[in-house]
Amino acid sequence: MRLLRVAVAIVLGFATVVQAEPLDLKQVSADAKWVAHVDVDAIRASTVAQKAYQQCLEKHKDAEKHLAKVREKLGMDPTKDLHGVTFYGKQLKKHTGVVIVQANADRKHLLAKVKEAPDYRAVTYGSHKLHTWTHRKGKKDEHAVVGCFHKPTVIVFGRTAVDVSEALDVLDGKSSGLAGSNSPLIAEIPAGAIFLAGATGLDGDELPCKSPLVKQSEALSIALGEHGGESFAMAKLATKSDEVADQVKAVVEGVRAMAALRHGSDADAMKIVKALKVAVADKAVTVELRVSADEVWTHLQKVRKRMADKDWKKHWRKHHESHK
Q: End of a domain among 187, 206, 228?
């Protein structure tokens, strides 16, 4: 776990942007019910991420050694070679969907690793070769994985050969993508977006979550990122009625009021609280937060300091135990 934390911190903090990889809607099936995208290049360009990287290097003096292990395992240098990851699925169910990785990876190295995995086999689909193996063999959560190199810089993963082959058809232009469709998942992608997510059909029977609010909603979109020295977070929830939208707005405003009461004496925290905006229009609730990246970093440092305080940790454990 420590190796993973260090590796993630290094990826998030590396400052050199090689090639931006925002969400490409042509790569996502027009039938998608949910989609998420992480723009790793945008993370590297983030002021907050760069400071986190420097802090990680100061705290973990052996970070380079851990990164070397990550390079060997992944067949690439994530600080330079990993650009973006897209997830999407046609069902709102657990363990479904595909992952598209944009990276300059060592194909021979990865294939050699995969061929050593349990139950490995390869099948042909058109001009592509699908590689299948069992992940975490013998464990409670063991499952099949299917992977395919669509292009030297594009790798597709899924749980089944059908999922991967259908994703390849979209990438090859044989099936329609989200771009140009009428899907509610289509939305303007803000500059500097680090994380994007969206889901539609929230009121469907297949959704694992049985929340009454979700059942009264139709679609959700989220965007997080940083641009021009400003951090931003945006969310939009499309509901079935103005009444539900107004209720959600009231909840958000209540949370904002409680935060103001708790952090009223902290000028830095109050800048963030006051920057939170919520509005309702056409049965949809929009929440937006825009604040200086430097102010976000200052607040995160205060949070980190509180978490490192032993008395705070003791209080948190006591609070957690009392609510079990």
A: 228
For residue 295, what are the CA distances in angstroms to 54, 255, 286?
17, 20, 23
Of the candidates 209, 228, 247, which is a domain's last residue? 228
pTM: 0.84
| Structural domain range at position 111 | 2-228
Specify the number of domains making up the chain.
Answer: 2
Express each pLDDT in 52-111 by its tens digit.
888 887 888 787 788 788 888 888 888 889 999 999 999 988 888 999 999 998 999 999
Q: For residue 278, what are the contacts with CB-CB under 8 A and spacing of at least 6? A: 249, 252, 253, 256, 285, 286, 287, 288
For residue range 107-126, what is the model confidence (pLDDT) as tens digits?
999 999 999 999 999 999 99
Q: Are residues 163 and 180 in the same domain?
A: yes
DSSP tag of 235: E
φ/ψ region of 191 (left if φ > 0, alpha if ψ in -120 to 50, else beta) reads beta
